[in-house]
Amino acid sequence: MDNEQQTDVSTDASSGAAESSADISPDVTPNEASAPQVETEEAAAPPLVPETDDDLQGQENNPHVQAVKQLRGELRERDREFKPWKEVVSTIGDPTIAKDYYELMEALRTPIEGQPNEYTTRNFIEKLDSMSPGIANELFFDLVSYEIPDDKGRVDRMDRHMMRNWGLDPDRIEDYRNIDTIRASGAVTADDLSGIPERFHEAFRALSSAQRDDFLLQKDTNGNYSLASMEYLQDKSEALEARQWREQQAQSQQQAAEQQQQAFEAQLQTQIVEDITTKAQSIRDSILQKSLSQVTFSSDPIQDEIAKEGMLALIEQAVHSPFPYQKQAAVATLKKAGIELNGLAQEVNVLEQKRAEYLRYTAEKDVLRARPAEAAATIAEQRILTWMNDYALRLAKANGQRVAEAQSQQNGQLSAATARYVPSGTQAQNGSTNPYEQNPHPVGSQEYYAFNRKLDREYKITGASMFS
Asked: What is the pTM of this model?
């Protein structure tokens, strides 16, 4: 049995998981009323390589036995060698991710050439920032806020220790920040502006109180200023214009960045929806083409496909319907088939979340976080596929029983119609062809029932056809 399926289809539900039917696609036809028997209990798979070769005792003379023993020995040795890595694979998912982490940690302490016993973290930072752009900035802010003791045992943030080393008081950071932006609280009067060209008025107002007082002292008795004073104001005016231009540029760049980010988010959301839709369809196709291909409900391909897709739609509705009443109804229906959706909804959420993270990190060229997200999504997808396969086969079993019961009832109706069939309306005929058995339409279809009802009316038979 294919290991991917994790399901067995057999003709005897009580037989062991090791037994499976050779005929795994029973068709329900007018002459067959047996339901497809689907074994839904999963038995533990036997080990691929037996622990011993006891099963080969007494067969040593067979030409292939020695080769089998040798191969088993090699496989056991391989399993012993890789046993410590099993937890790594189950935790990380992709072994290449573990290799990248190892190489990253190796770069954490790189020896400095020509300086014995000296190390640098620069290679680590460069490699980390190449794998996850922007993370160097995050590391910097985490480092400066990290608390360590100084040589006197005083525990404080690293940035405050650095300021003390520079001869600055970390408690006066606001004073240092406002040194170049302090302005006078007094208003500039019209007398202050007299004699100053209008194009320099804004620059004069931007001066500090002390600077304005010094400048006003340069005015001569005629109310004019020297050339040097005008050049000073011109320099201040150009500096002010440059600062205003930079502020405008920064504002424009911020607006452009916001618009670019909005466009990126819109495009990313479209990609996420398309990706999740593709994944969901892939899971559906896998179940329809593998598990449910083992069971046939109708000889009509379209009706058979509708029945199978309806079962998958019922499971999906129970997991993801936005309407509570629909979800509750679907869950109740599944319980009638012995199905409990334990953990499936959570795995679906994990798949959607991790695929979304993978696409975002990939778009941002953040390999460090993209690959673990992809690995986690792959594990979730495999679990969903396993559960969905099992649930689909359980529903197939329940539906198969229902179809078989309906077919049995139909056969009974046909037998009754045969016994009651009177071609002339007055005389019973033995050995005549039963017209009900000549129904050319698939059992259970609307055309099938319409054909039978037509015969009922034609031969004046009441209640002979099913659902008449």
From this structure: 0.49
